[in-house]
Design goal:
By secondary structure, this protein is an alpha/beta fold. It folds into 2 domains: 215 residues, Queuine tRNA-ribosyltransferase-like (TIM Barrel, Alpha-Beta Barrel), CATH 3.20.20.105; 125 residues, no CATH class. Helices cover 40% and strands 17% of the residues. It is built from 18 helices and 16 strands. It has an 8-stranded parallel sheet with strand order 4-14-13-12-11-10-6-5. Strands 1-2-3 form a 3-stranded antiparallel sheet. The protein has a 3-stranded antiparallel sheet with strand order 7-8-9. The longest helix is centred in the last third of the chain and has 27 residues. The protein is globular, with a radius of gyration of 21 Å.
């Protein structure tokens, strides 16, 4: 495996640096640097909604190859509270994660709640546990994220469903644009990179309108929101075709809440750099396993005495040590270890996938890898549903400069991932940990 390129240095006063090192057509490879380290792009961010990627320790995350994680402003505000997180040294200290963190503003979660009241000042909603009314404004969303201390923070936006009508979508676009200016105006920390969010539902002209409004505020990066909310693969790609070319070439582009591997690779082909989704972790907890040759449910009876690993070409801890039959048993028995092992594997698969995407762009073979992966990963029915016909004629495995005997995705490079584990994961004793605490 070829070495990934060096990440850019942060200039004084900057919270984020981005460099695009390679490009094949619209697919881009590069790197983002933050105050807590760098990530190679295109990148997948595991979701740790409540400051924890369910089932994985930060050390596990490093072993999967993950370089950045996501936490959610809305959930952290409700529990344990942003003031508490700040007293504990911010998310990085509290979580024991020394790499970059991105926080979502909570807009998607708030607007998905019942009986939300929205006006120009912000939104009012009912806290599910206590029943009390809570108000969230653009300024308050920034205040919370500043207390959490994430490296990349998101503007508070208005997200509508895929079936929203034109007028509702336009109102959301315009309000999102106005709220972005308030978010930027209320930011007080210069070590956090604020990203604006493009909305517009499934209306191309509203996507263009939203991009124009969002770019009125000069920011370190920009996100595409309001997709993967039920519009389907084809519509999602149509909106990216409209949106991505309008975003600045020299800044990272983040597609929020996506998703399935087929959506990710097609979004990369349209110029997207960053992704997040709960799919690999949430699906793992119910026994759905992602592999190079598609996904399957390990809890099916077919795997009751199956001695093979979850994925024969994966070197994660779960695949090196345990059988499908054992992991099936654990999940069926509601043993926590079962969901932990399945989660570890799924996140490793996603990071292997992203690592191969990056290499294919750097070595100018992305198009061949793209179609080889879709041909290998998708079943015949799914290929037809997504409009991928005769994929076998669109690539030649001999174009790929790595071993493809078992799969077009190379096997997991665990040692490379372990080499990235930082000193925060390797304190020698409790005394070292106490000494660290006393510095806060």
């Amino acid at each position: 495996m070829t070495d990934e390129p060096s990440a850019p240095e942060l200039d004084d006063g900057d919270a984020l640096a981005f460099t695009k090192t390679h490009q094949q057509r619209r697919a881009r490879a590069g790197a983002v640097t933050t105050p807590h380290g760098s990530i190679q792009t295109p990148a997948f961010m595991p979701v740790g909604t409540q400051a924890s990627v369910k089932g994985l320790t930060p050390r596990d995350l490093r072993e999967t190859g993950s370089e950045i994680v996501l936490a959610n402003t809305y959930h952290m505000y409700l529990s344990p509270g942003h003031e508490t997180v700040e007293k504990l040294g911010g998310l990085h200290r509290m979580m024991g994660w020394d790499g970059p963190i991105l926080t979502d503003s909570g807009g998607y979660q708030v607007f998905s709640l019942p009986d939300v009241e929205i006006d120009e000042s912000g939104v009012t909603f009912q806290y599910e546990k206590s029943g009390e009314k809570v108000q969230m404004s653009p300024e308050f969303a920034i205040e919370i994220q500043e207390a959490l201390g994430a490296d990349i923070i998101m503007a508070f936006d208005v997200c509508v469903s895929a079936d929203a009508d034109y007028d509702e979508a336009q109102e959301a676009v315009d309000r999102t644009g106005r709220w972005l200016k308030r978010c930027a105006g209320s930011q007080t920390r210069d070590d956090q990179a604020l990203f604006g969010i493009v909305q517009g539902s499934v209306f191309p002209d509203l996507r263009q309108r939203s991009v124009s409004q969002t770019l009125e505020v000069d920011l370190p990066g920009y996100a595409v929101g309001g997709l993967s909310v039920g519009e389907g693969h084809e519509k999602m790609m149509q909106m990216l075709e409209v949106t991505a070319p309008m975003l600045p070439e020299e800044k990272p582009r983040y597609l929020m809440g996506v998703g399935y591997p087929e959506d990710i690779i097609e979004a990369v082909a349209r110029g997207i750099d960053m992704f997040d989704c709960v799919i690999p972790t949430r699906h793992a907890r119910s026994g759905q396993v992602f592999t190079r040759r598609g996904k399957y449910r390990v809890t099916n009876r077919d795997y009751q005495v199956d001695k093979f690993p979850l994925d024969a070409n994966c070197n994660c801890y779960a695949c090196r040590n345990y059988s499908r039959a054992y992991i099936r048993h654990l999940i069926e028995a509601d043993a926590i270890l079962g969901s932990m092992l399945a989660t570890l594997h799924n996140v490793t698969f996603y990071q292997d996938f992203m690592r191969t995407i990056r290499r294919s762009i750097r070595e100018d073979v992305f198009q061949s890898f793209r179609f080889a992966f879709l041909d290998e990963y998708l079943g015949s029915q799914k290929k037809g549903d997504l409009g991928f016909h005769r994929l076998e004629d669109a690539y030649d495995l001999e174009d790929l400069p790595w071993e493809t005997e078992h799969s077009c995705i190379p096997s997991t490079d665990i040692q490379r991932n372990l080499d990235k584990i930082g000193p925060q994961d390797n304190l020698n004793s409790t005394g070292d940990r106490i000494s660290e605490i006393m510095k806060l």
